[in-house]
Design a protein that fits this description.
With 127 residues, the chain is an alpha/beta fold. The protein is built from 4 helices and 6 strands; from the N terminus they run ββαβαβααββ.
Length: 127
């Protein structure tokens, strides 16, 4: 018996200066644009003034190269508008993908004004 894929969904919550997006199901070539549009839409001029975006991957079931590309696009846009990106509740397969592609440190490192120039500070809340 073939089990149908877990349906993709994004649940967005906003509290104070934090935008949280819960990603459920498969983040792939069919769904990655939805994640980028959702986050970028909330960070666009005229939107709420968020300082942090938390992507919660506790219900992520799969990610492919397009999903990884979406994470890089979200990170790039967040950084361009001065917003810190956090990747929360990363399942093992996501952690492996980020490690194997060399993007783990890039996506989970924040640069602070207290750090010496060029010395990124690792995200303490990665999880």
């Amino acid at each position: 018996m073939i089990t149908p894929p877990f349906e993709f969904s994004l649940i967005v919550t906003a509290a104070a200066d934090v935008l949280t997006v819960e990603v459920a199901g498969e983040l792939d070539h069919q769904t990655s644009d939805a994640l980028v549009r959702t986050v970028v839409g909330h960070l666009s001029p005229g939107g709420a003034a968020f300082r942090r975006v938390r992507l919660d991957f506790g219900r992520l079931t799969w990610i492919d190269s397009m999903g990884l590309s979406a994470l890089l696009a979200v990170h790039r846009h967040a950084g361009a508008v001065g917003v810190t990106l956090h990747l929360d509740s990363r399942p093992g397969f996501l952690e492996r993908l980020l490690t194997l592609t060399g993007t783990l440190d890039h996506l989970t490192t924040t640069v602070t004004t207290t750090a010496a120039a060029g010395d990124p500070v690792p995200e303490a809340e990665a999880g």
